[in-house]
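Instructor's aside before we start: the two examples that follow are unrelated to each other. I chose them only because their records fit on one page, so don't look for a connection. First example below.
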Amino acid sequence: MQGETKLEWRALEYEEKERGNDWFWALGVIVVASSITSFIYKNYFFSLFLIIGGFLLALFAVKKPDLVFYEMNKKGLKIRNRLFPYENIKSFWVKKEGMQPTLFIKSERLFMSIISMPLGEDITEEVKNIMLSNNVPEEEMKEHVSEKIMDSLGF
């Protein structure tokens, strides 16, 4: 049965969160205070780094999430235009608890080897069956710690 099914879905890149003016004021106060402190201690490069980082953080906060195209076909899992062949996927996990079902895959990449993507309620079993039929082992996984930290910071 290897790869007979083709499954496509679209989902937002990340869950959009409303940030009020207080969030941006807090970001500004933290960045300005940290930059001034760094400047006082004559660490000019770090001060500039904090200002640029704060500005980029604010830009990222107002950016709307993109709609991402996912496809599972006979070759592998395609995310946007990048294909992850089944033989390069070390394991997968479909997490059903919580707000939205999520598919986790562990790839051969060295940096951020665990990739998560949202699933629709109606396709969780089909995704699981396709992965298992392509000999991808099932292994329980969770979000990376950095994702949890970013979530708690409002991202």
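Example two begins here.
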Amino acid sequence: MKVILKADLEGIGPAGTVVDVSPGYARNYLIPKGLALVATSKNVKGLEKQRAEIMRRVDKEAKRIRALGERLSQTRVVVAKQAGEEGRLFGSVTTRDIADALEMEGIKVDRKKIVIEEPIRTTGHYLIKVKLPYQVEAQVQVDVIEAG
């Protein structure tokens, strides 16, 4: 089924393009969420008129995401966890812990966008990657300390 994307969708395409997706995905997800329109001849003609508006909105959102990436790169958060001998944690630091620490700093990031290469199981300083839309990646400095 051909649809016109109203927003950038990772793995599918940028806003303002006509793409072919499965009918169920279009009917059950993309169209009800307002992420796409059915690609009828009328909608395609309307798209040409709206393309400038869509591109302006996409550029504005991309600038906001880049600014968020800059802010994240300059942010240092502290996560306190219970630890035993030699700074070994009881459990590990999760993406949820980092997302909560960022939220306490006033930065809201979906925990699914936080990438931890291997589990953090000891106290120390870590650089954690955050993947944002528009191919923006930021490195957040996370300090894991012993709660006490």
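Residues 41-73 form the longest helix (33 residues).
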